[in-house]
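dumping this here so i dont lose it
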């Protein structure tokens, strides 16, 4: 019994070939089973594994979609995003996320730390930029969730949804996956280590340093595209 690994390999190959955009809907399960030559049970196990990695999300009665589940109240997010811009989003992140990292250093439970380490490992194993970005999103949310504050988590989720809407055009060049020395790996390691050791100030500094680096790189890519 392979727990869906065979079907997972075929499904990943199929999705890589299609290169579907975010929130594109996959064919119905029956059609996918026929195309991949797998059983319904094997397909569902593979989809569950991809959903756990943030590669797809499922809506009962509507189907399976590429990417991570969007927030429920998209109308508010869309209105705010339509009036904002990437610079505003980064300023908001620089105000909120370092403080969340500091709170996480105070309150993170053992399972929260384990989730962060899972995200670190997943990002390094990523076979594409899409996979890396899914693990990156999952890590940042794990930090926010570890702060153990429902209101702050709701603020983070709203900001993250706006961020995913208001983005600079991504200009990904070869390689097709993050290089082994990608700056965010070391940045993320420092953030998680500070949270794990309960070093509040170090966690705040590490998150702020990471976001500043992201801001500088996104700005450089945006200016080069103009």
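and the seq i came up w/
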């Amino acid at each position: 019994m392979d727990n869906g690994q065979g079907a997972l390999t075929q499904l990943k190959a199929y999705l890589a070939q299609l290169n579907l955009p975010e929130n594109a809907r996959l064919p119905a399960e029956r059609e996918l089973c026929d195309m991949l030559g797998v059983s319904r049970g094997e397909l569902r196990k593979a989809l569950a594994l991809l959903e756990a990695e943030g590669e797809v999300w499922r809506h009962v009665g509507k189907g399976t979609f590429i990417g991570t589940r969007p927030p429920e109240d998209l109308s508010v997010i869309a209105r705010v995003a339509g009036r904002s811009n990437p610079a505003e989003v980064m300023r908001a992140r620089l105000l909120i996320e370092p403080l969340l990292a500091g709170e996480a250093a105070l309150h993170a439970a053992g399972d929260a730390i384990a989730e962060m380490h899972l995200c670190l490992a997943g990002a390094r194993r990523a076979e594409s930029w899409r996979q890396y970005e899914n693990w990156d999103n999952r890590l940042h949310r794990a930090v926010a969730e570890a702060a153990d504050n429902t209101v702050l988590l709701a603020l983070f989720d709203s900001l993250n949804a706006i961020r995913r809407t208001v983005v600079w055009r991504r200009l990904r060049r070869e390689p097709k996956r993050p290089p082994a020395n990608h700056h965010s790996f070391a940045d993320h390691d420092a953030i998680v280590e500070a949270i794990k050791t309960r070093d509040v100030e170090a966690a705040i500094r590490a998150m702020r340093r990471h976001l500043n680096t992201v801001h500088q790189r996104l700005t450089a890519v945006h200016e080069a595209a103009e």
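The chain has two domains: 5-66, 74-225.
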